[in-house]
Design the sequence.
């Protein structure tokens, strides 16, 4: 009896969800779903953590919506991904369609090409930005051999080179003023905005790997990969839920007198929270970073237990040099006690790999904040203390 | 003592007292609210471990002293440039010295940052590179000044050097990473807190030495302002005087820019304010007057940049420009009349 009621409820909820989804789809002025057979699109997303990415099944392909991070009412892009072996359904033939697996992709960020690499599909990447700065040996070698073209820097990318690569897709990092339409006009490629960096949760950012998985035709592998990350992350997080004492922590180094702090709802703040620490700016509800006066910083974070910093130089960060850079540092308790949590960006290939290893980062933080919880963990990204 | 002299003394005393008041406000007011009684307790209490003590003595005090000295230095440097070139819109950056400092800093932050040659951009590295860049330009200009007879030619060469160094800096910026560009932009916004307690003694000594040299040049400037031929008739060696004036003015600009970044407008606007308030073209009065008003204005700008209630510090360069621009507009209208 009870099971029957549950079944009826489930059916009705599913129906309700479909109706609500169809309603909102029809309401949306710029949605391409108006002319589609809505029954072919699943009501729920394949992804659950990313705010700006919505992946839905559509017949034997996928319907992808990239939401506009700066205007919640609009979408940044929407397109379909269909396996090359399958015919494109008649009703969407005029829509933006990508055939998977893509043969040639140009990527604008290391967080994009690194998924291709980890899925064993790096040969599909024909061009990357700042190829000379890649820290992963394999990619560096491919750039050196000319198998992957270095297309310049973000502010100065080589359009002619991109045209010569004849890419199927150009995966770019969207900004409020960025526009990829000129590249679409110059090439036959379809531009895919990859708004991963705007996600403010570790799992939300990592989940963007599913999109690349779909573009490579390796959606199942990508899905399994993410599922493993999610399971380990949540298992670790639960271990910290019951900690009796939460150490205080603050983050980042100033540029001269300009001290940017991560918002209380930011990506890094979420890590601190999940690792059983108290971020000193947790009362700030913004996800974005903002400026703070150094004297205010000293008042708020002067007695914090830990200080998390990143070092983007090839040389290790040293306390003496930090103090020479800004003598105010010596008045922070975390600095005096050398409770500085440091990540060497280049040495750890942080930009290329860390986004897809949030579980590992969480484990690093837990080892530092609560060593009694994880006793045998070897840190991958963050270590405690400077020379 | 005639009325004019009495007024001059009154103006000096007023400017001095305003400076003391502004200095005190710089110590007492900031983004962290410290009630007056508590601030006085911190100042006269020997407990130096509290955060408030650190804020007052290690952050606000060196910043206020730096603002005071920088304002005075830039104002005197600006006065010397305006007199030398007999151009009301000349300022310490007109000879490309600030741009030279900018190129020096750009070379360290943008080039070495990309190549990771220098482990970290320490304050000393940035200061040295800015100073080196400024001094190279200063040396070129000083040498040229001994060869060129025309001030107009010199000013054009100064502007050309500024374009040249600016262009190289732009190219470096164009090929740099976001983080490095950001660090460079931040340096360009100016910062009176960059000197800090550890460099304060050195900064104070060098600026005061430069200001004293500026004072000693007052008579020379008085002769230069009446025209080169008159000055020559009075026995002044024009080329040597020009070289000395450029060297002292350039030195003051180089030191301030090296430590605090390029600070706009103070050097341009303050000499006009000094002439306007003191009604004098005598540099024995104008030089200390400019130094005092420059110090006052810099302290006022530093106070505005750290307005209480604001968690952020406004960029000092923007604040000086906000105050300096109306003064420049006023000068343009005044000279038009």
Sequence:
């Amino acid at each position: 009896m009870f099971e029957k009621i549950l079944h009826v409820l489930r059916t009705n909820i599913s129906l309700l969800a479909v109706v609500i989804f169809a309603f909102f789809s029809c309401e949306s002025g710029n949605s391409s779903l108006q002319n589609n057979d809505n029954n072919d699109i699943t009501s729920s997303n394949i992804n659950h953590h990313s705010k700006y990415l919505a992946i839905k099944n559509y017949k034997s392909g996928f319907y992808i919506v990239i939401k506009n991070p700066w205007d919640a009412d609009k979408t940044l892009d929407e397109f379909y991904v269909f396996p090359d072996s399958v015919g494109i359904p008649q009703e969407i033939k005029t829509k933006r369609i990508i055939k998977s697996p893509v043969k040639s992709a140009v990527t604008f960020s290391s967080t994009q090409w690194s998924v291709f690499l980890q899925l064993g599909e790096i040969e599909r990447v024909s061009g990357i930005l700042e190829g000379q700065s890649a820290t992963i040996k394999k990619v560096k070698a491919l750039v050196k051999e000319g198998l992957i073209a270095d297309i310049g820097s973000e502010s100065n990318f080589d359009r002619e080179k991109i045209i010569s690569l004849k890419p199927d897709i150009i995966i770019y990092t969207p900004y409020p003023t960025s526009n990829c339409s000129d590249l679409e006009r110059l090439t036959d490629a379809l531009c895919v905005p990859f708004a991963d960096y705007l996600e403010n949760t570790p799992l939300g950012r990592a989940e963007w790997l599913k999109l690349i998985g779909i573009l490579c035709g390796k959606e199942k592998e990508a899905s399994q990969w993410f599922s493993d990350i999610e399971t380990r992350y949540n298992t670790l997080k639960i271990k910290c839920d019951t900690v009796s004492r939460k150490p205080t922590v603050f983050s980042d180094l100033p540029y001269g007198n300009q001290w940017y702090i991560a918002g209380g709802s930011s990506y890094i703040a979420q890590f601190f929270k999940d690792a059983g620490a108290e971020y000193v700016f947790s009362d700030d509800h913004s996800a974005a970073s903002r400026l703070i006066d150094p004297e205010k910083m000293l008042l708020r974070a002067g007695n914090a237990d830990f200080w998390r910093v990143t070092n983007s130089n090839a040389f290790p960060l040293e306390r003496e040099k930090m103090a020479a850079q800004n003598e105010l540092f010596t008045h922070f308790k975390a600095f005096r006690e050398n409770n500085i949590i440091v990540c060497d960006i280049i040495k750890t290939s942080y930009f290329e790999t860390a986004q897809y290893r949030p579980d590992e980062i969480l484990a690093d933080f837990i080892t530092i904040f609560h060593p009694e919880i994880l006793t045998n963990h070897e840190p991958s990204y963050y270590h405690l203390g400077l020379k | 003592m005639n009325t004019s002299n009495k007024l001059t003394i009154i103006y000096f005393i007023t400017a001095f007292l305003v400076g003391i008041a502004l200095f005190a406000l710089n110590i007492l007011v900031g983004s962290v609210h410290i009630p007056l009684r508590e601030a006085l307790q911190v100042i006269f209490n020997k407990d130096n471990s509290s955060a408030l003590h650190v804020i007052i003595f290690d952050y606000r005090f060196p910043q206020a002293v730096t603002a005071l000295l920088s304002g005075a230095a830039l104002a005197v440097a600006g006065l010397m440039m305006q007199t030398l070139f007999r151009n009301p819109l000349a300022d310490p950056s007109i000879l490309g010295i600030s741009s030279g400092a900018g190129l020096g800093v750009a070379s360290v932050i943008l080039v070495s940052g990309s190549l990771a040659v220098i482990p970290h951009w320490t304050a000393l590295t940035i200061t040295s590179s800015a100073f080196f860049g400024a001094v190279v330009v200063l040396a070129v200009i000083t040498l040229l000044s001994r060869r060129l007879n025309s001030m107009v030619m010199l000013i054009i060469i100064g502007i050309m050097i500024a374009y040249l160094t600016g262009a190289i800096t732009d190219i470096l910026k164009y090929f740099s990473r976001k983080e490095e560009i950001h660090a460079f932009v931040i340096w360009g916004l100016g910062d009176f807190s960059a000197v800090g307690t550890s460099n304060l003694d050195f900064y104070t000594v060098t600026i005061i030495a430069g200001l004293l040299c500026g004072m000693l040049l007052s008579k020379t400037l008085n002769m230069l302002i009446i025209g080169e031929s008159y000055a020559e008739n009075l026995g002044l060696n024009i080329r040597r005087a020009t070289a000395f004036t450029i060297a002292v003015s350039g030195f003051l600009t180089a030191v301030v820019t090296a430590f605090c970044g390029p600070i706009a407008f103070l050097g341009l606007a303050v000499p006009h304010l000094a002439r306007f308030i003191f009604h004098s073209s005598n540099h024995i009065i104008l030089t200390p007057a400019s130094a005092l008003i420059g110090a006052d204005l810099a302290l006022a700008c530093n106070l505005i940049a750290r307005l209480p209630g604001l968690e952020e510090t406004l960029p000092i360069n923007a604040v000086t420009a906000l105050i300096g621009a109306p003064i420049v507009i006023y000068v343009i209208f005044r000279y038009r009349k």
In short: Residues 1-37 of chain A have pLDDT under 50 and may be disordered. Chain A has 14 helices and 18 strands.
